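Q: Could you fold this chain for me?
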Amino acid sequence: MWFKNIFIYRLPTDSVLTSAALQEKLILKPLLSCSGLDKQSRGWVSCRGDDRLVHVANQQILFALGVEQKLLPATIINRFAKERVADIEAQQGYKVGHKVLKDIKEVVTKELLPRAFALQRATYAWIYLSLFTMNHHS
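A: Sure. Below is the predicted structure, expressed as structure tokens.
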């Protein structure tokens, strides 16, 4: 695995970081699937496909933040909203206003969101403990 983008941060020297402590913190917020009306969900995932959220090797820690996001393009919302607007205009005999159109789009979004596809991705974080402990003791 190679990083596409990398940001480097320096941890405070008074911090004490262990893989066990990090695992305990991450396990409190695992990635859960989006529920009915949720557009997005975030939580920690395994970076190796097992039940551990933290992978340790050669004084290095690897962990990952998972994001699940519902895909509901604006074009789909607009298409369904346009059909509803046409029905309302035919019944009432006049054009609907912007506020009514906005309300219709919100209703359509709430109806379509539970059926939307969900895309999952992960963002990885890497901590090099050797540098951290060298800076911690100096």
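A (continued): Strands lie at 40-45, 54-57, 60-71, 117-128.
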